[in-house]
Structure formats: structure tokens, C-alpha cells
Amino acid sequence: MKTAKILKHPLIEHKLGIIRNKETKTKEFRETVSEIAGLLTYEITRELKLKEKEIETPVSKCISYELKDEVVIVPILRAGLGMVEGIQNLIPSAKVGHIGLYRDEETLEAKEYYAKFPVGMKDSTVLLIDPMLATGNSTVKAIDILKNKGAKNIIFVGLVGSPEGVERLQGAHPDVQIYLAALDEKLNEHGYIVPGLGDAGDRLFGTK
Ligand code: URA
After folding, report:
1. C-alpha dihedral over 141, 37, 9, 5, to 10 degrees?
2. Which tens digit of pLDDT belongs to each residue from 16-73?
3. Measured in angstroms, how far is the CA atom of residue 49 from the centroid of ligand 1?
4. Which residues of 29-50 are buried (b: 16+ CB within 10 A; e: fewer)?
5. What dihedral do alpha carbons 37, 175, 196, 46 form, nearest 10°?
6. What is the CATH number of the domain that holds 120?
7. Whose CA is nearest to atom 3 of ligand 1?
8. Given ligand 1 and candidates 20, 192, 197, 205, which is best to mutate, with the most ligand atoms within 8 Å of its CB?
């Protein structure tokens, strides 16, 4: 099993304070989520493999590098959408798939209502993104879907996680590396992360 990595950085801590604050309005919330996603991406992509490419500078030939594998960003709808742009800014060649899930009110299970991916998932590095890793149910389901599509190298990227969500995800998919900006105290009886930041989707899109 891979240990969850909590990426501590002064800028990330500062920006987490902004999105946790209930006084922060939609525009600043959205921009800051995107910025944190970019900062996380910088750290996470340290492990990506490179391939050599010969190019010519204005002076001479030289060996340069480019990413070896395709990167596919997969937001879980809808809150995951808030992290896409921040990641794409750093990896403009990345393709974007989407997963939409709803909760079956009888069984409480996460069910798929939408899934669309680029070709070549098998050989791509897949960044599955969702700001909140709460119960872990939707993340586990999303990874089931990705694995069914052949994805082998899946990395989960979230902003705030709960111990319950991390444990559930590690139990179901021990091969998936988890990256978070913060691991909070617990889930409350309504399934919200404490202290968390409230409903990430509502705060990103100005809904209630
Ligand atoms: N989803 C959210 O948006 N916030 C939580 O605290 C838990 C799940």
C-alpha cells in the first residue's frame, strides 16, 4: 500500500487558509483552488518519466527532454472541474476525461451517470482529481471505472482529505498514490470534512 502524501508548502498553507475561510467569495475561492491545484501538480510531477529528444539551439545541437507518457486529467464532476485549469496551465499537452457520479439514495452507493475518456488510457499517467476526499466512496468508484478502461498508473489528487476517506481508498485501491494539500480531523455526521471548507462544488460555482 502506498502512503498518502500530504504536500506541505508555505504557499499551499497560505492558500488553504483562503479557501477554508467562509468569508471568501466565489471568484477568489475558484482562483485559489486552481492555484493550489497547480502547486500540487508541480510537486506530484517530479516523478514523471522523461524521454530524450535531439533539438538544435541557435548555437548547436543538444539533447532536450519531453514527458515520456501522456498525462490525462480526470475530474470527478462537478467539484473536480475547479482543479482542471490549474493543472492544465502546467501540463498543456494533458488530455481531459470526465467522470460523473450520483449517489443511489437506496443503496447509498456511487453510480456512474457519465464517463468519457481519451484513447490510450492504458499507457497514460492518469491524474484523478476531486478537491474533497470525504467518505472515499466516489473516489473508489471513479478508480473502478478508470481501471475498467485499462488505466494502470492512477494518481489521486485532492485538496482536503479525511482519515476515513484515505483509509477507504487505500483499502480498495492500494496501488493508487494519494496526494493531498491537507489531511483534516474527521468526517461529521453529514459527511462533511471537519474543519474542511464546506461544500467545494457549491463554493466553486456559487450554488447552494
Ligand atoms: N464534499 C464537499 O464538498 N465537502 C465536504 O466536506 C465533503 C464532501
Report:
1. 20
2. 999 999 999 999 999 999 999 999 999 999 989 999 999 999 999 999 999 999 999 9
3. 33
4. bbbbbbbbbbbbbebbbeeeee
5. -30
6. 3.40.50.2020
7. 199
8. 192
Going from the Cα of 192 to the center of ligand 1, the distance in angstroms, rounded, reads 5
In angstroms, the CA 53 to CA 120 distance is: 22
Note down the domain range covering 59.
5-205
Instruction: Give nearest CA residue, ligand 1 atom 2.
Output: 199
Residue 150 has what pLDDT? 97
Q: Residue 104: is its pLDDT beyond 90?
A: no
Q: How many domains does the chain have?
A: 1
What is the Cα–Cα distance from 187 to 156, expressed in whole angstroms? Answer: 19
Grid cell at residue 137? 466512496
Give the three-class secondary structure for 125: strand
- C-alpha 122 to ligand 1 mean position (Å): 30
ipTM over 0.90: yes
Nearest residue by C-alpha to atom 5 in ligand 1: 192
Task: Look at residue 125 in the predicted model and tell me its pLDDT.
Answer: 98
103 is catalytic: yes
